Amino acid sequence: MTPTPFANLTPDLILDAIESVGLMPDGRMLALNSYENRVYQVGIDDAPMIVAKFYRPQRWSDDAIGEEHAFVAELAAREIPVVPPLQLRGATLHSHGGLRFALFPRVGGRAPELSDPATLEWMGRFIGRIHAVGALAPYRSRPSLDLANFGEEPRDWLLAHDFIPGDLLPAWRSSVEQALDGVRRCFDRAGDVTQIRLHGDCHAGNVLWSETRDAAGPQFVDFDDSRMGPAVQDLWMLLSGSREEMGRQLGDVLAGYEDFHDFAPRELHLVEALRTLRLIHYSAWIARRWDDPAFPAAFPWFNTQHYWQDRVLELREQIALMDEPPLWSS
Q: Using CA atoms, how far apart are residues 287 and 261, in angstroms rounded to an integer?
């Protein structure tokens, strides 16, 4: 990784890249909220606006990006509401000025109302359809969401790069080791869990809710974190509130989900384990990107004494939660 991976991504390069695949930008451009990649809404002459996504160098191989594009296209072919990249000049992945990019149709919508049982059931139906397709074939070039990739490797990277303050290092190291032991116990209790192709980052920010006649309901966007993993990974991030509230929400989601794909209840042992892995991975993700100027600007609270103190407390809370009985739908 270079310290400034997008240093040469100027407005001129963006417009030139789009022209290189046969489209004619009209000069309108708006940067959208994205840190891992760089994403822009761009106006096109005599055509609808598009979204241009420039991939972070060295994060994914061409094959891994190609697998994601193929999966989303497979979903779209089955009329599942996702947003596949445009195929231009026979390809969906392009390169210009040393950066890879893809273009997408622009879609509108608002955040889904996850407090509404009908919305959760509707979301569940489409996630069930996504998983039914995801279970048909595995990824070959994308990693799995597991203890090694999301827990042990991020832990080792943080320790090797001296991000944790010295006076907090013993407490953080002890907490993360206990947390990972808890994750192992959760996976042991869940048993042999099937790994399928997932959205991977299925939170409300990656769902656009439309109420138009032609596209009513959710549209799932940004499959950039798609990978192999247990089905419950795409469900637990839709849940919030007290344990009782999350149980009701889970029941609403599964009421729609199981119309299209079977759900193994033993995967509920993994909810807090997956949350724990996400917390560890998230800290390492920001740390790995700290030389990208966008990250200190977006996360000014990161890498402070207070930040790491909170992470220790957070991990200790997760250690206790992972030893509680699993969440059940109600």
A: 37
